[in-house]
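Try it yourself: sequence plus zinc ion, in.
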Amino acid sequence: MKLFNTLTRKTEQFLPLNPPKVTFYSCGPTVYDYTHIGHLRTFVNNDLLKRTLEYAGFDVHHVMNITDVGHLTGDDDSGVDKLEKGAKKQNKSVWDIVQFFTEQFIQSIKRLNIVPPKELCKATDHITDMIELIQKLEKRGVTYQTDEAIYFDTSKFLNYGNLSHQKIDEKIVQARKEVYSDPNKRNPVDFALWFKCIGRFKKHVMRWKSPWGDGFPGWHIECSAMSMKYLGDTIDIHAGGIDHIPIHHENEIAQSEGATEKPFVKYWFHSAFLLVDNEKMSKSKNNFYTIDDLKNKGYDPISLRYLFLMTHYQKPLNFTWEALTAAQNGLNTLRQWAISLRDSSTRSNLYLEKLEKTVNYQKQISDAIFDNSQFPQALAVLYEMLKSNIPPVDKWDILMDFNHVSGLKLDDFHKVIIPQSVTLIAEKRNQARKRGDFDTADKLRDEISKLGFTVEDVTSGFILKK
Ligand SMILES: [Zn+2]
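Structure, out:
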């Protein structure tokens, strides 16, 4: 199996430290607002990687954190506490906000058929672990204290900047642009391990006793503390969105390696961005979507998983309703195939030619998946295989294999299956509407309803329902 490693900028053979075991950490959500489809792209890509590792025979130990404290609006210690800001906005306590959005996150990943991590751990349950790690760093002489915080001294860590392939001077220039900075911070790229509840954080609600007085942890320290606690000093894979590379993950490496003097992570796995109609998602632009928004418009949440699967995880993905409609139709087609193949059980002796073909399809699909998660390519071969002349029973086996690794719930026969023939009529009707031929469109609508389905027009096309 091959994986692209952000650290080396190369696609490498994947060789875990202690096979068949694979230690896997992924950065979780900051639970101050709704989990949206941009976050979900990263979580689905991580899930596809995890399923791929298991498909390859590895035994994956997956840990994910829930950030419920300490994440400021600027990843580099600038701004205000996101969680307290969220609480103020909703006029609720910060603890209520954390609980509400944690539940919304868990519900969202469930809807997308994401396999839950073995450990889903909250930062606030690991304050002691974080304090101990900071003390370890203090003993090693890589921290300093100001009136406001305990900082990691990046000048003491030679490899700082290796992950983002940025020179420290470039990083300093970028960091200087930030609005807020502690006047006693020695270097703009140094980062807080612990904030004291004085000055700008005097009224901070979430606070714990510590050797440095009442305070709360900086954002980055939780991932180092939890990763090392559950998975050991060095792990195989650490995953997250590409926005985490320059600050969060760079800081995680510095803290962890600064404490242990061992490599922190062997392979870094990063998912590219999701755009909506070619723009960055934001509430002010009204293009901020959650999985419930999709569901309320009549889409099966799994159609979003299908859409993600169609674009390689390292490429930016542009979300449009048209693309989601196409994904929903693609998902329906595969489910239709699953229904038509499920009862095929007679396995006859194959001619050598067909046997070779079957083996070849299977191999092409798994080769694509094992080659740095080339799911779009695997999906293309899957369709080719379904249309080929290999026996139905073999098609079924290959389809179910793909179902397992892709998490598309193709064997969920309780889902309403829209026959291909109905989709075709609906497409014809859509075209008729577009050219203004409403008589034909109405006739085709009747045809669809005679077959037991209704067609609903949406801006991006149509949705079929039983
Ligand atoms: Zn993290």
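One thing you can check immediately is this: The radius of gyration is 25 Å.
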